[in-house]
Design goal:
globular, GMP Synthetase, Chain A, domain 3, 12 helices, alpha/beta, eight-stranded mixed β-sheet, Rossmann fold
Amino acid sequence: MSSDSDLKSALAGAIVPGMDHPLRDVGKVLRAEIDGAQAKVELELDFPAATCIAEYEAFFADIAAGVLGGGGVDMTVTSRIKAHGVQKTLKPLENVSNIIAIASGKGGVGKSTTAANLALALAQDGARVGVLDADIYGPSQPLMFGVSGQRPTSDDGETMNPLIGHDVQIMSIGFLTDADQPMVWRGPMVTSALNQLLTQTRWDNLDYLIVDMPPGTGDIQLTLSQQVPVSGAVIVTTPQDIALLDARKGLQMFRKVSIPVLGIIENMSTHICSKCGLEESIFGSGGGEKMAADFEVELLGQLPLDIRIREQTDSGTPTVVANPQGAHAQSYRQIARRMAARLAIRGKDYSKLFPKIVVENTG
């Protein structure tokens, strides 16, 4: 006869569907009790999963039923997102649990489109999400979220309220400048502007702040990586050799500043013909997989080059919102969950749980 510990062990060791990690790494068993032929199970995931909770409950119920040898299972799966550690030299941002940088070694690989859809995917799965458009020279998130031309408000004259697009909090230099006016700024001005956008925005209790980083690995990117308290980074690349070469530099940059790389996203993996539906690897194939293997990081997913993704994003309703049940939206949600799960494996941030200690000289 199976015991409660047998049930708990089986559940904790089960590989979470689509995650490649056991439950014990990305969540926990809160309750696993057997009463005769019945079992009461409560599981908690460390990543958002509202759109697939039913799938997870059915999966783990089958495992519990197998341990019981039949009988009924009362299964409940919930999510609770925790704050994770940042660079040792920096403090976490107030009202923001986790900052994830979305970066690329070069421009033109679909980084901003990917960042927008990942943010929306996390929001659809139940997380509180914000987007910081850190691409000062070419801000695109206002257009992608359908809020271009708007201006942030201020309640106190010192801080700004983020704009809201599709239930996501957004801040961008694009809200504060003329869309046709080029940003003729040197590096220090750019990093100063970004720090102000980051710290003077009144983020409202975010689980995740997605930072759409400027492309490249120069002084600006390095400075931002050293000044922004980042919990993890994701590298977006295409299978093309030249893109992979630059993506490798981006990955190494984050490692040099002690920011964990959560994984690689291979964008434009294949081209889908809008006329006949033919799928071709016009930029090559296998590049993202090889890079992930070389650096021992996870390939979070592969996305196609499809005109519909571009059209939907340019219209201010990215794919995850425009067609939430479509295959592309499901891919973005799966990648977002894998990204959040990789972050869940990283060390937690306990700094907010302890009181501040003040030493005073009373002599």
